[in-house]
């Protein structure tokens, strides 16, 4: 297995095609005073389009991405993963694999990678940070089929020794927490598992108390309101791909709606709580690599593999830390339910925050990862 240095390309031809399609987009009607209640909001999307055409600078965004060291690593014959690989200067640094999900990218960790590698104080733990792009995402190779999260976990586990790390700590949210669960079950290299979402779940999720029932009712309500995308991408993703691969504005709307609905907006449905530059760079990563369609394959792959459940009779025995953000799409139930499937040694109930923890609450996120890993 080999690792080669990599620079993120501007990909001028694809960027020009994107600009042309955004410029020619035709808007359509929406119900009066709909806001974000029926999906992407027209007023915001019009403002985003204007900013995209008049102010956004993709080459500058690429230059910012390239300030971090990138690699492409052959993790099995003929298949390469892209990753940010930021080694620490500290002799006591330990390897940390930090995993993004959908509709995100390694950009989710842009503001924290260097702080993890070179912390502000010698009293804080330091890490050799490895942040891979999922198969079929960004600059990682395309899968040969619809690989699910267990298959991806095997690739991630092969990535670390290819970079020189025999043991490592793992952090994941969204797809990262599902992949993390499989790593906890299958890997022999894992020292610790830190989860910021409730992904792979115990086979027994039966409620025992009124609080358990309340959590279940809330989870069902969130599922009914926010996970239509999961049904589409987990059943017939190729049909959706035909529309989205030809429409940059469609991809932008599909993503922005998630960044609204899955974030902690203090009970108010408002515009995405992230800068347009950040959102557009994340969107452009998908567009310039033509990876919207292949990025959805993991959903179908998960259902082919068998879904979200830990196999009956299995339990993750790796020391597990939980950062429970209250407005996460994959919010945690009571600790004792999680402990049916995981060896939980660390638990933090966060005061605020949603699904995109490292973006929304970087200080809370960093502090919890450091506290968990430092105590291992």
From TrEMBL:
Gene Ontology biological process terms in this record: epoxide metabolic process
Active-site residues (renumbered): 174 (nucleophile), 299 (proton donor), 355 (proton acceptor)
Limits of the Epoxide hydrolase N-terminal domain: 4-109
Cross-referenced Gene3D superfamilies: alpha/beta hydrolase
Pfam families the record matches: EHN
GO MF term list: epoxide hydrolase activity
Hydrolase listed as a keyword: yes
Keyword Hydrolase: yes
Organism superkingdom: Bacteria
InterPro entries the record matches: AB_hydrolase_fold, Epox_hydrolase-like, Epoxide_hydro_N, Epoxide_hydrolase
UniProt entry keywords in alphabetical sequence: Aromatic hydrocarbons catabolism, Hydrolase
Family of the protein in this entry: Belongs to the peptidase S33 family.
Identification of the protein by name: Epoxide hydrolase
């Amino acid at each position: 297995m080999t690792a080669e240095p990599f620079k993120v390309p501007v990909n001028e031809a694809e960027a020009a095609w994107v600009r042309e399609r955004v410029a020619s987009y035709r808007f359509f009607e929406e119900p009066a005073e709909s806001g974000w209640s029926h999906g992407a909001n027209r007023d915001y999307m019009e403002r985003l389009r204007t900013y995209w055409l008049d102010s956004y600078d993709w080459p500058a965004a690429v230059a910012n991405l390239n300030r971090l060291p990138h690699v492409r690593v052959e993790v099995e014959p003929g298949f390469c993963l892209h990753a940010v690989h930021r080694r620490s200067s500290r002799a006591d640094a330990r390897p940390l694999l930090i995993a993004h999900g959908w509709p995100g990218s390694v950009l989710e960790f842009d503001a924290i990678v260097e702080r993890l590698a070179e912390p502000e104080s010698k009293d804080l733990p330091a890490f050799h940070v490895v942040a891979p792009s999922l198969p079929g995402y960004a600059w990682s190779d395309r899968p040969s089929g619809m690989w699910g999260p267990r298959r991806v976990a095997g690739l991630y586990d092969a990535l670390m020794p290819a970079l020189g790390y025999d043991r490592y700590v793992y952090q994941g949210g969204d797809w990262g927490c599902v992949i993390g669960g499989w790593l906890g079950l299958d890997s022999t290299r894992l020292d610790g598992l830190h989860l910021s979402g409730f992904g792979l779940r115990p086979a027994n999720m039966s409620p025992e108390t009124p609080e358990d029932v309340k959590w279940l009712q809330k989870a069902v309500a969130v599922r009914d309101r926010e996970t239509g995308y999961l049904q589409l991408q987990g059943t017939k993703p190729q049909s959706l791909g035909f529309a989205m691969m030809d429409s940059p504005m469609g991809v932008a709307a599909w993503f922005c709606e998630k960044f609204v609905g899955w974030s902690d907006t203090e009970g108010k449905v408002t515009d995405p709580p992230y800068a347009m530059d950040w959102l557009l760079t994340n969107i452009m990563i998908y567009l310039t690599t033509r990876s919207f369609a292949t990025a959805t394959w993991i959903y179908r792959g998960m259902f082919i593999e068998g879904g979200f459940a830990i196999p009956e009779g299995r339990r993750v025995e790796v020391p597990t830390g939980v950062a429970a953000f209250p407005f996460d799409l994959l919010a945690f139930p009571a600790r004792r339910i999680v402990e049916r499937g995981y060896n939980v040694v660390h638990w933090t109930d966060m005061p605020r925050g949603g699904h995109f923890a490292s973006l929304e609450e970087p200080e809370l996120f960093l502090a919890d990862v450091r506290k968990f890993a430092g105590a291992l």
